[in-house]
Amino acid sequence: MEDESDLSTIMITNLLPVDLNCLLYHLELSIGKTDEAKRRCQAIRKYMWSDKRQFFTDYDFIQKKPTDRVTLAGLFPLWLDISTEDQVKHVAEQTESLFLYDGGLVTTIAKQSSQQWDYPNGWAPLQFITYRSLLRYPQYKKLAQTIRQRWMNLNERVFVETGKMMEKYDVVNIDKLASGGEYQVQEGFGWTNGVYLEMLHDHISEIRSLT
């Protein structure tokens, strides 16, 4: 949205999403379209990298420049090995300084928005993408583990209090349930369960590797 507090200013039809293009790159590789994948990889690095924000963002093809909106979608190039070494460094640093809170990662830093995907909420799929993206790089393993532990701790805390796993969580105010959006917070959510179990598996595997 041009105005993060006004849903009517949504501009999605002007944007080329960085996460979608990364997934298309992966699909092209998977079906043997290597030339197309190579061109897409180069385009993502060139057009979806914001020098101003030092982060991958969506590309506004009307304004002909990357947007200023940083979100965890900017981790997809790391997850799929598209980013350069220098880009990885900057994205990791920005992830820690802008997105990481006591309960894990906020999806966006849009603090004036009341939409459910924005601050202060965190969502399991993007916790997982970010966690696994950073885990690919040994120098950011500790940061990845911190993200994992904070997210799992919040899941467990809310489960103890409510007996439920939630669709989304308030990762900033960990004593509160998440809010925002057009409907009430959904309970017992599949992707939260799946991400928690996958992170737990990683945690147990790390412990076993030390014995």
Automatic annotation (TrEMBL):
<dbReference type="InterPro" id="IPR018232">
    <property type="entry name" value="Glyco_hydro_37_CS"/>
</dbReference>
<dbReference type="InterPro" id="IPR008928">
    <property type="entry name" value="6-hairpin_glycosidase_sf"/>
</dbReference>
<dbReference type="GO" id="GO:0005993">
    <property type="term" value="P:trehalose catabolic process"/>
</dbReference>
<dbReference type="InterPro" id="IPR001661">
    <property type="entry name" value="Glyco_hydro_37"/>
</dbReference>
<keyword id="KW-0378">Hydrolase</keyword>
<keyword id="KW-0326">Glycosidase</keyword>
<comment type="similarity">
    <text>Belongs to the glycosyl hydrolase 37 family.</text>
</comment>
<dbReference type="InterPro" id="IPR012341">
    <property type="entry name" value="6hp_glycosidase-like_sf"/>
</dbReference>
<dbReference type="GO" id="GO:0004555">
    <property type="term" value="F:alpha,alpha-trehalase activity"/>
</dbReference>
<dbReference type="Pfam" id="PF01204">
    <property type="entry name" value="Trehalase"/>
</dbReference>
<protein>
    <recommendedName>
        <fullName>Trehalase</fullName>
        <ecNumber>3.2.1.28</ecNumber>
    </recommendedName>
</protein>
